[in-house]
Amino acid sequence: MNAPLRPSAWGLLPDEWKPLCKELGLPPFRAAQIATGLYQTFALSWNDITTLPAEWRERLSQAFDLAPLEIAHIQHA
Hints:
Blueprint: H1 17-24, H2 29-39, H3 54-63
Helix pairs in contact: 1-2
């Protein structure tokens, strides 16, 4: 049986991380650290966001895929 797909972290907007952090039990300031890691330094893995504790990097890696987005289709005019 296939493992369930994890949602992509790239599918969330920066403002969506704060309520999600609260839901996951993370302090709200961690949302800013996640957003910085994703949208400013373009982390390639959760381990690249070293401002987060290792335990939470592991938990986030289990919950959200951080693989780069792939181009599905290029349309030429």
